[in-house]
Structures are given as structure tokens and as C-alpha cells.
Specification:
The protein is α/β, with parallel strands linked by helices and about 400 residues long. The protein has helices spanning about 45, 50-60, 75-90, 100-115, 190-210, 215-240, 245-260, 265-280, 285-300, 305-315, 325-335, 355-365, 365-370, 380-390; strands at about 15, 35-40, 65-70, 95-100, 140-145, 155-160, 165-170, 180. The strands form 2 sheets. The protein has a 6-stranded parallel beta sheet, with helices on both faces. Helix 4 links the parallel strand 4 and strand 5. Helix 9 (about 285-300) packs antiparallel against helix 11 (about 325-335), helix 9 (about 285-300) crosses helix 14 and helix 12 packs across helix 14 (about 380-390). It starts with 13 loop residues before the first strand and ends with a helix.
Length: about 400
């Protein structure tokens, strides 16, 4: 049977979607009596009143909690281990992630690490990880996203960076008990990060269209999600307070998370993970934007996905597309419309002398994604992608 006609739908979070849905948290059965509330190391979660709203819900339910506020934009191994240790020491029996993809990724990995001994990298299944299977079930966790970008609220893996080994890769944990997707919490995201995160979700969907694991179910998710992003990302770029457009971006992001569960991403993500593993300050979405046109041009040169690229161009608004090149044009148009067509690697300290090592990193550390391309890229092709992207 064709792989297109074969897929698995695993268990996932119970989703509560819509403006104001955070206010319903206290009405739900809680998965424990004391929560570790995980937020970023920035000020926005407190300054915008989101933490206050969550704390009010927990007080109404009568739930104790402790706050861990150390998560970086690219969460680090040591920080995740510190949060897991705090959960154990404070006898927390579940975790709540209030934040963007980095916070949710960290929280779900903390949930696994809090119940299992040893070093976090013992449980990593690729790269220098020791490929150990956790012996104890993770703590339950609740996802409350404050950004629209990663879809981490509905998947079970978290991407963590190990600075010592220069590895940025996924660690499997568990699906959230609840995903409360309230677009009111996303109206204060800065213009730049709104776009970076929106393109992250877009590329997760686009890569799902191209990967070996694409199937009938994922095709449905990807078309719907891509169309919503192309229509609504320019709106929230110009007007971040537009709750309706924010809701549609949140919906598309959720679909991108489901897309990764039902299909997967490709080497575009493994290449970017190499960039931000070496340069922690690089936002993931920005890195994806930087390499995107060169990556898809490399796929175009292979002529292994011409029909898929035409279909992707149609999803992106070029309904009369007939050539794979039309997709590159649609992608370029959207980047210009959102003001991110001239991002520079050099602004983050990236230099061409690193590209050979980064290419090797992309092919090995995230080999699971690298091998999902219909025709895996060579080392030389990845170096060319990086060189063609460099400014």
C-alpha cells in the first residue's frame, strides 16, 4: 500500500481553543495538587498579566504552585535539569507551561526528567545521547501557549540545546493533559517575533508536504494551516491586537503541531538547528527564514518534488501555479510582505568558515529529519544552502 495511505493518529491533548479560554482552567479536573509553573526568563509573562491570570485560576481551584522562570529562547540542557530538580524538591505532581515553544518544550522534558534519574542526555535517542528508555511515566503537564509558532502544545517532543556538544535536538516525553489555546495571550508578542514564529509554523507545514511521511491526513492539515498563515500573518504583522487574525494564526500553529505528529519535518529544520546550536541567540524562526529560499531551491534542482511544490504554491495563494518555481516566488512574496526578506546571518555572529561543520551537524545530530527528504541532500548541497543564504 502507498505510504500516502498509511498513518498513525496517537493520543493527544484535550484542546480548549478560543479567546478567554484561560478563564476555564479552574473548571477542569486538575492532574495533581501542586504545580510547577514554567515561564521564560523574560518579563512579558508577568508584565502582561498572564501569570496573574493563571495564578488566579489555580487559587480558584485550590491548587498549590511554585514558579520556575529561567527558560531561554533556545532552552538549555542545564536549565531543564534545574527545573526538573525543583519539581522533585518541591514535590510538584504536575507541570504547567505558560509561554512560547521554548517554555512548552522545556516543561514537557522536565516532566520526563523529574521522574527519571541520571543525566538528561541519557534519554536522548540521537547524536551523543545514550538512548536510554525512561523507566517511569512523566509527570502530567498542561500547555498554555502565549505565542503562535511551534505547535508544541499538541506534540510530545521538546527541542533542547546542549552547548557542550553543540547539539540541538528533540527529546520525547508525553502529550499535554490540556492545551489551552487562548489568542488573547498572543496579542502582545512583538512584531518581529510574531513573524519569526508564524514562519516557523509555516515551515513545519511546508516541510510536512515534502517529507517521506506525508499522507492523506497530513495533507489536510497542511493545506488548511498554510492557507490560514498566508492570509493572516501579514495582518498580525501590521496589527498585533487583531484577535480574530491571532486566533487563526493560533489555529494554524496547532495544525502545524499535529502535522509534525502525523508526518514530520525535513532537513530544513535540521540545518537550522545546527545554526542555532552554534549561535544560541539566533531565533529559530529567523534562522528558518534565512535558509528557506536556498533550501527549497535545492529541492527544486533535484526535481523529485515538482508536483508537491506546485501544490504548495497553490496553498500559498498562487492558485494558477503550474511550475515548481512558483512556490519560491510565493515564499519570497510573503517574506517581503512581512519585512523579513533581508535577515542576515552575520548579525548573529555566523561566519562561512562554520558551514562545513554545521553541515555535518545537520546530517548527524538531527538525522531523523535529514533523512525525511525525498532525496537526502549531500554534504556539499547543505554547504551550498548555507553559502547561498549568507549575508
Amino acid at each position: 500500500m502507498s505510504s500516502l495511505l498509511s498513518f498513525n493518529i496517537p493520543s493527544s491533548a484535550r484542546v480548549l481553543f478560543g479567546a478567554g479560554r484561560l478563564n476555564d482552567l479552574h473548571t477542569l479536573p486538575m492532574p495533581g495538587q501542586k504545580a510547577l509553573v514554567v515561564i521564560s526568563q523574560g518579563k512579558s509573562t508577568r508584565a502582561n498579566g498572564y501569570l496573574d491570570r493563571l495564578e488566579n485560576e489555580l487559587r480558584q481551584w485550590g491548587c498549590a504552585y511554585v514558579v520556575f522562570d529561567r527558560i531561554q529562547a533556545n532552552p538549555l540542557k542545564e536549565t531543564v535539569e534545574e527545573g526538573a530538580e525543583l519539581a522533585k524538591n518541591e514535590h510538584c505532581d504536575f507541570i504547567i507551561a505558560l509561554g512560547g515553544g521554548s517554555v512548552m518544550d522545556s516543561a514537557k522534558v522536565m516532566a520526563m526528567k523529574a521522574t527519571n534519574e541520571g543525566d538528561l542526555w541519557d534519554y536522548v535517542m540521537s547524536g551523543t545521547g545514550k538512548r536510554k528508555t525512561p523507566t517511569h511515566e512523566p509527570l502530567p503537564w498542561i500547555a498554555i501557549p502565549t505565542t503562535a509558532g511551534t505547535g508544541s502544545e499538541v506534540d510530545a517532543g521538546g527541542v533542547i540545546t546542549n552547548l557542550q556538544t553543540k547539539e540541538k535536538l528533540g527529546i520525547f516525553s508525553t502529550f499535554a493533559t490540556y492545551a489551552i489555546i487562548d489568542p488573547e495571550l498572543q496579542t502582545t508578542v512583538s512584531q518581529a517575533y510574531t513573524v519569526y514564529q508564524g514562519f516557523d509554523a509555516l515551515f513545519q507545514l511546508l516541510e510536512g508536504c515534502l517529507c517521506r511521511s506525508a499522507n492523506l491526513y497530513s495533507d489536510m492539515l497542511q493545506e488548511t494551516g498554510i492557507r490560514h498563515i498566508v492570509k493572516n500573518l501579514p495582518i498580525v504583522y501590521q496589527d498585533g491586537k487583531n484577535v480574530e487574525a491571532r486566533a487563526k494564526m493560533a489555529f494554524a500553529t496547532m495544525l502545524s503541531g499535529y502535522s509534525m505528529v502525523i508526518s514530520t519535518c525535513t532537513a530544513e529544520h535540521s540545518i537550522e538547528h545546527a545554526l542555532s546550536a552554534y549561535h544560541e541567540s539566533l531565533p529559530h524562526g529567523a534562522g528558518l527564514i534565512m535558509i528557506s529560499k536556498a533550501y527549497y531551491n535545492a529541492i527544486l534542482r533535484q526535481h523529485v518534488a515538482d508536483d508537491r511544490l506546485v501544490r504548495m504554491a497553490q496553498y500559498m495563494g498562487k492558485e494558477d501555479a503550474t511550475r515548481p518555481e512558483d512556490f519560491i516566488g510565493a515564499l519570497d512574496d510573503l517574506q517581503k510582505l512581512c519585512g523579513v526578506d533581508n535577515l542576515k546571518m552575520s548579525d548573529y555572529g555566523i561566519v562561512p568558515e562554520e558551514f562545513d561543520e554545521m553541515a555535518s551537524n545537520a546530517m548527524t545530530v538531527m538525522a531523523r529529519l535529514y533523512t525525511q527528504d525525498l532525496q537526502p541532500l549531500t554534504h556539499e548541497e547543505i554547504v551550498r544552502i548555507l553559502r547561498d543564504s549568507y549575508r
